[in-house]
Amino acid sequence: MRIAAVLALAVLISCQSSQSANSANPAPPSTSSPIEGRTDRWHGPPRDLSQDEAAGGHVLRKHVGRTDNELRDRLEREHNISGASAYADRATAEHAIGSALAQSQDRIQRWLNRSGGHANLVLDYDSDQPLGRTLNRGDSQSRPCSHAVVVLKFDPPAGYHVLTSYPECRS
Length: 171
Prior knowledge:
Helix content is 39%, strand content 22%. It has helices spanning 2-24, 49-54, 59-63, 68-77, 90-103, 105-113; strands spanning 83-87, 121-126, 132-136, 143-145, 147-155, 159-168. The strands form two sheets. Strands 1-3-4 form a three-stranded antiparallel β-sheet. Strands 2-5-6 form a three-stranded antiparallel β-sheet. Strand 5 and strand 6 (159-168) form a beta hairpin. The longest helix is centred in the N-terminal third of the chain and has 23 residues, at 2-24.
């Protein structure tokens, strides 16, 4: 019995010293985008969009990783939109949205704390590199966009969820 206790203690000490050696110099978290050649830094932690999707949002379903043909198909199906857009990938969407939320915390708190009804809150985020693409109705090709729109929906008691977000060209 004593031998088993000594062995268990030795294993525990060995694991802890190995973990602390690994955590002494942890690699810094990556803040750059998965888009090749991107040099700007994100301004906040990424937003886990799976929670927003479960609450009724549609960023992942409609605005991530879509091809130009899929954007064209959406324009054909949905006549009430003037353009269809998509982030390059999920990581780019989550980082851009996280950055927009981090940069707008004061505005979001004022919106959450006000009394009465809460219309959707629209936030803007500008990057110095493309976040995705937009295909406008009547255009034959999509264009790279470095601006993002983030729309928040009031959602008590959680506060809010991201209803939608998409790249938008502003030029």
